[in-house]
Design goal:
Structural class: alpha/beta
Number of domains: 3
CATH class of the largest domain: Alpha Beta
Strand content: 15-25%
Strand order of the largest sheet: 6-5-4-7-11
CATH architecture of the largest domain: 2-Layer Sandwich
CATH topology of the largest domain: Nucleotidyltransferase, domain 5
CATH superfamily of the largest domain: ATPase, nucleotide binding domain
Shape: globular
Radius of gyration: 22 Å
Length: 389
């Protein structure tokens, strides 16, 4: 019984710590009194948590905040700029990496082309280099997480199937653990990670229900409801790229025909516009966009992709009824030609478009969206109060 009681006390401590961290992260520096009011915790409890956070180097009292009544209170602020979550996204032709501190500030972001190497080799090499860089600068690594374009096992460490990478039942987490020297790497679907990144740092911030649609070689969707990713029973929700929403004759990388991905993925855009591929999806999209103003066939090719995007978004919106749909990746540079075509089809195909249609938005996070979301996952042990480094 004593052990059970101690466990319950520890769980309560973690929940309360997470509440305090959440307020400081969302609202910025504030007094202990305000922390007590915003979290609903007793002042003594808040004081104890702040002391623990100070000991861990995650918070500090920085000065005085004058209020209208009574004695001024000392301001508590998150510090922890040296406590980082390392997030990575591995894709067919690039690896993105983001280092995110406890306060939510991106400290490093980089996109590395795969080139002639394999995605597996590049992501493990990049992970090792980033971990070395953090330690060389005196930083502390809270955790690592990797976003992948495919299905992830319930252990959140094993890639069950990533058709575009030709990976099946690969223990990616173990390789990243070894490369970084940090145990407990988490692996998640790239669209889910991008949705988390968009919810915390992008267009879906403060939105109750949002869909994020990736724009790379593969296509997936992350669905956020009340701040949490909807994963489904097996964790495979969001695999929309392989729904039969595309041209029935178009062959997909999964071996089937008619997949939405086969009609709206990067390779479909390159085929529709006749533009040659560049080093990353973003660079390819910029190349297409540069040709569009002077080449009507390229502009029409983008509009064709836009119509396919609209067809799929209308179907997804008819099911999920999101407040916003965020288009990411290579879709963003093509927006002047792609979005109007997509909007037109959404208006035609969405049954309740006259009553409510989701706002179609463009991600500001570039190819870093999934890596940012992965870095947020990597910080979970700290932000949930289970680990104070």
């Amino acid at each position: 019984m004593a052990s059970s009681g101690a466990g319950q006390v520890e769980q309560l401590r973690r929940r309360n710590t997470a509440r305090v961290l959440g307020v400081l992260r969302a609202d910025g520096p504030t007094t202990r009194t305000d922390l007590s009011r915003r979290t609903g915790l007793a002042k003594a409890t808040v004081g104890s948590i702040v002391t623990d956070l100070e000991s861990a180097g995650l918070a500090a009292e920085t000065g005085e905040l004058t209020t209208g009544r009574g004695r001024p209170g000392r301001t508590v602020a998150l510090t922890g700029a040296d406590v980082l979550g390392l997030g990575f996204e591995v894709n067919v032709d690039y690896v993105a990496t983001v280092s995110l501190d406890v306060g939510g500030t991106v400290r490093h972001a980089e996109t590395v082309p795969v080139g002639d190497e394999t995605p597996w080799d590049v992501v493990t090499q990049v992970a090792a280099e980033r971990a070395d860089d953090v330690r060389a600068a005196g930083g502390r690594i809270a955790g690592c997480a990797v976003a992948v374009p495919g299905l992830v096992a319930s252990d959140r460490r094993t890639v069950r199937w990533a058709p575009n990478l030709q990976w099946r039942d690969r223990d990616l987490a173990a390789s990243i653990d070894a490369a970084t020297g940090v145990a407990g790497t988490v692996v998640d679907n790239d669209a889910n990670c991008a949705a988390v990144g968009e919810s915390s740092h992008g267009q879906a911030s403060g939105v109750d229900s949002a869909l994020y649609v990736t724009g790379t070689v593969g296509i997936g969707a992350g669905w956020i409801v009340d701040g949490a990713v909807v994963r489904g029973h097996g964790g495979f929700a969001g695999e929309v790229g392989h729904l039969p929403l595309g041209d029935p004759a178009a062959r997909c990388g999964c071996g089937r025909t008619g997949c939405w991905e086969a009609s709206v993925g990067l390779r479909a855009a390159l085929a529709a516009t006749g533009v040659t591929e560049a080093s990353t999806p973003w660079a390819s999209a910029e190349r297409i966009a540069a040709a569009a103003p002077d080449t009507p066939a390229v502009a029409e090719g983008i509009a064709l992709i836009g119509r396919h995007v609209g067809h799929g978004v209308a179907a997804l919106a008819g099911f999920a009824d999101p407040e916003v749909v965020v288009l990411g990746g290579y879709f963003v540079p093509l927006a002047p030609w792609l979005v109007p075509a997509a909007e037109e089809v959404i208006g035609e195909r969405l049954t309740f478009a006259d009553l409510h249609r989701p706002e179609l938005l463009l991600s500001p996070l570039g190819l870093q969206a999934a890596a940012i979301g992965a870095a947020e996952h990597a910080l979970d042990p700290v932000l949930t109060g289970s680990l104070l480094p």
